[in-house]
Design brief:
about 325 residues, alpha/beta, 12-stranded mixed β-sheet, 14 helices, 12 strands, about 20% strand
Length: about 325
């Protein structure tokens, strides 16, 4: 009996040693994405680990801007092999900082509403910025920005564009529709705004408690309520002016300690093993066609009549100006 326990103990220690010898792929994520991965137990993590014979560690570091700041501060000492959770609004800023290496991944099978050709940032999901609401409480939701602006009794919660990519998407959305009149629109929209939060999770909690009629979110957000909660009351309002397209991105820092593993994961992101987890984990659209495997709940989500997106040149030239425009208009009494 003693020999048996000794043998089992040796096997246990051997397994620990083998695990310790596995290469580790460190991926910086936003806190919201990390929470999604943790809560939904994404099968893609174990699947990739079985393919690469490695360990994948997701490290939550805050929002997209925080991730970029951390990479700058860490410099060549950064342990991050990949960064996941950036978006098209921040891609140009990240490119200017020269933090990332080319991904070298073929993406000719992407299924997106736009053409993608960026050599540094690879999209892994996408969605449309929208306002969601409870259809049992708000019987007549606005069908346009004009409807919303003309009805100050509709209370909304938005996110700070300086900290949130969703909030930054709203700034871009309004600018693309109203152009130089955006500041006046913000002054008018201020009557509707209950509060501005730093993160999406904070704003969602407030909305869920009934603190507002509508929440700045994504058109696909109700898929979460339908799939995870069997709740079909949460809807997204379709605006006739169109909706702003947000693509979430993954990229490899130039300082990656395991570039080969990172390259493997970048290729893996565009496979069905990863993409099947997007609509049920991130509750966004996958970037490849998964056919009938897209959950049936997505058939209840609208497709915008007009897809709006800023060009990298516009982001580079006007991003800070548009944020200051919002801040000034929102702060004025």
């Amino acid at each position: 009996m003693k020999l048996r326990f000794v043998f089992l103990g040796i096997l246990f220690l051997a397994n620990i040693a083998l695990a310790a010898d596995l290469p580790k792929l460190i991926i910086y994520t936003t806190k919201s994405l990390h929470s999604s991965i943790r809560k939904s137990s994404h099968p893609f993590k174990k699947r990739f680990e079985s393919i690469c014979n490695c360990e994948v560690e997701f490290v939550p570091v805050g929002g997209s801007n925080v991730m970029l700041s951390r990479l700058i501060l860490e410099g060549k000492n950064s342990p991050a092999d990949l960064v996941i959770g950036l978006d098209n609004n921040l891609a140009e800023k990240a490119r200017e900082l020269d933090l990332f290496a080319p991904h070298n991944v073929r993406f000719d099978h992407l299924n997106l509403p736009i053409t993608w050709s960026d050599p540094y940032f690879l999209p892994y999901d996408y969605g449309y910025i929208s306002f969601i609401y409870n259809s049992k409480k708000l019987k007549n939701p606005p069908a346009s920005f004009k409807d919303l602006l003309d009805n100050p009794s509709i209370r909304i919660i938005i996110q700070d564009p300086r900290a949130s990519t969703v909030g930054l998407g709203l700034v871009s959305w309004i600018r693309l529709i109203y152009g130089d009149k955006a500041k006046e629109v913000w002054k008018k929209l201020k009557r509707n705004i209950v509060t501005v939060t730093k993160s999406y999770s904070n704003s969602y909690n407030l909305f869920y408690r009934g603190e507002a009629d509508m929440l700045l979110s994504y058109s696909t957000s109700p898929a979460y309520n339908m799939i995870a909660e069997d709740n079909y009351d949460i809807k997204a309002a379709k605006f006739k002016e169109g909706h702003y397209l947000q693509l979430e991105l993954i990229a490899m820092p130039r300082t990656a300690k395991n570039p080969k593993l990172a390259q493997e994961f970048l290729k893996f992101v565009l496979t069905e093993d990863f993409q099947h987890s997007v609509p049920i984990g991130n509750f966004m659209y996958p970037v490849i066609d998964i056919g009938n495997d897209l959950p049936k709940e997505y058939s209840q989500i609208f497709t915008p009549d007009h897809v709006l997106i800023v060009t990298p040149e516009q982001v580079k030239k006007y991003r800070n100006l548009w944020i200051q425009e919002w801040l000034q208009a929102y702060s004025e009494k």
